[in-house]
# Entry
Amino acid sequence: METIRGTQLSKFPLEPLNIVADLLYYDGPFLSLLELEHDSGESYYFYYWCNLDERCNRWLIFRVTRKQITGYLTGKTTLREIISHPIDHYYFLGDMDNDSEWQQLYLVMFADLPHSYWPKENSWFNRELSGVSEADWKILEQRFLTDSSYYDDRVSEIEVVSGDTIDEDWLPKRGQRLSGVAQTELTNRISRETLEQVLTEVIGKQLETLLPKLLEEIVLKTLAKPSTASLIAN
Amino acid sequence: MTAFKYQSEIQNLPNCPPANYQQVRIQAFRWVFEDENHSNNFRPPLVISPHRRKDKRFRGNDRMTCAGYALSLFTTLEQAKKRYDFFYVNSPNHFPKSVGTHIAQGLLEEPDGVASKADNSGHFELHEFAETDLKPKFQWLGLAIQEKKYDGNN
# Structure
């Protein structure tokens, strides 16, 4: 397999990461959706099988938003689009053996991921061909494909960005949605804040020394962000 | 009682093979490697290394483990190619390294094992009996991919 360019990690930093559903499956999982529970809510991650050799399977792990999950399952976006535009700008990339042990594990920046790992441009989800089980599809429908879940997602994202429980007056009425621009802005800012959290709390100082410019950018953009209320549109 | 090829691995799994699996006589299609002597051509996923089924991050259960000792097959050539294309598009880098690049066709007969019903994509599983040897029964038809020839460097 290709040599990994990245920061080697001694252990997987996202625990507990629990399975939600296998989205692509043939003789084992190709693409799985997992969730990380933490104090401020939940984060979703894709586990994408991206290579193998005689000993290990190589997995690409990266955070995804509910919007991306819904978009993928409803045919609005492709797997390539999601993988090639990671919201956190980095991935975890690791080789796992038959005993489920990481033989090597790296944090890889977006620019260092080989493009050979990207799916093709027409990597649309197709339920019939995907191999997703009936049980998993029910879970996905309940969590990502209902109007109420979409509405709750938006409210949750606002709360994460603002850091507070949002004022009732700010809420769009049920059935209304945030504008596309507002959704993008919210997603971008969640991404930066989560990246900052990972850098400072989870992975620690080894990355702070490697990525000072990135940290500076995060701080500057966080300070410059506009008020949350101005992003809400009918 | 007829023993299965991976009897020791499945004998403690409940309902394995599932009771509704039946002996069949049908034409079947399987993804294989170009090399007709490749050791993985007729091996189920849990016998191939590395495998993904026992990964502790995933919901390993008896049903999945049981299926891991069955061969994946398709009922028509068209369905085998369609499904191959789908997964190739989603993982062009390594999918052919895992399952092969070609399709072979053979007649499954009652003494070969017990099979599931095919799903909507034409996929079904076969639990081979202990003495079954499918290789001599299958003919290599050609490349599995319809989109373009796999060059091993995508």
Observations:
- Chain B touches chain A at residues 44-45, 49-59, 68, 72, 82-83, 86-94, 97-99, 120-121, 123, 154 (CB under 8 Å).
- Confidence is low (pLDDT under 50) at residues 149-154 of chain B.
